Amino acid sequence: MGNDAQSADVDLSHVDYPAVQQSPEFQELRRTHRSFVFPVLGACLVWYFAYVLLAVYAVDFMSTRVFGSINVAMLLGLAQVVTTFAVTMWYVRFANRHFDPQAERIRDEIETGVFAERLAANGEGVTR
After folding, report:
1. Is Thylakoid among the key words of this record (predicted)?
2. How does DSSP classify residue 124?
3. Which residues, at least 6 apart from 104, have a Cβ–Cβ distance to it below 8 Å?
4. By residue range, what is the domain housing residue 62?
5. Cα atoms in the 13 Å half-sphere on the side-chain side of 87
6. In a domain, 3, yes or no
7. Which long-range contacts (CB under 8 A, 24 or more apart) does 117-124 make?
8. Is 80 among the domain residues?
9. What pLDDT is recorded for position 125?
10. Contacts of 90 (CB under 8 A, 6+ apart)
11. Is there a contact between 91 and 40 (Cβ–Cβ < 8 Å)?
12. Which among 32, 45, 50, 20 is positioned nearest to 102, based on CA atoms?
C-alpha cells in the first residue's frame, strides 16, 4: 500500500498545503475518492436500514425458518457481516489501484520540490 513512512530527512516545512489542496492533481484524487466512497456508502446504508426495517416491521418474514433453527433473519444478519468484509476488501483493492498511485505522485512531487517549482514557474503562490 502507499502508506510508506516518509524519510526523516525530508523537510516539509516549506510546503504550501493550501496550494496542494487546490491543485488539479489533488482535486482529481478527491473526486476519485468521492466517486467511489459515496455510492458504496449509500448502498451499504440502504442495505443496513432495510435489514433493520425488516426486523422491526416484517417479523413474520424474518422468523421464517429456512432449515433447522436457521431463519431468514439469521441469514440476512450473516449477509450483513459478509457484505461488510466484501466492501472492505473492495475498497482496499480500489484504493491500492487508484488512490495510492495518485497520492504517491502528489507526495513525490511535494517531497522532491517539483510541486513548489511548478507553483513558482506559474507564479501561483509563495511557499512558506
Report:
1. no
2. -
3. 2
4. 17-122
5. 17
6. no
7. 119/16, 119/19, 124/19
8. yes
9. 57
10. 40
11. yes
12. 32
**Is residue 75, in this structure, part of any structural domain at all?**
yes
Per-residue pLDDT of the chain (128 residues; tens, 9 = 90+): 555 655 556 777 778 888 889 999 999 999 999 999 999 999 999 999 999 999 999 999 999 999 999 999 999 999 999 999 999 999 999 999 999 999 999 999 888 888 878 877 877 654 44
Give the Å distances, CA to CA, from 80 to 53, 56, 87.
14, 16, 10
Which set of grid coordinates corresponds to residue 3?
502508506
Q: Do the domain assignments include residue 88?
A: yes
pTM recorded for the entire structure: 0.77
| Structural domain count of the chain | 1
At residue 9, the pLDDT reads 67
pLDDT of residue 5: 58
Q: What is the largest CA-CA distance in the chain?
A: 73
How far CA 75 is from CA of 20, 85, 114, 125, in Å, comes to 47, 16, 54, 57
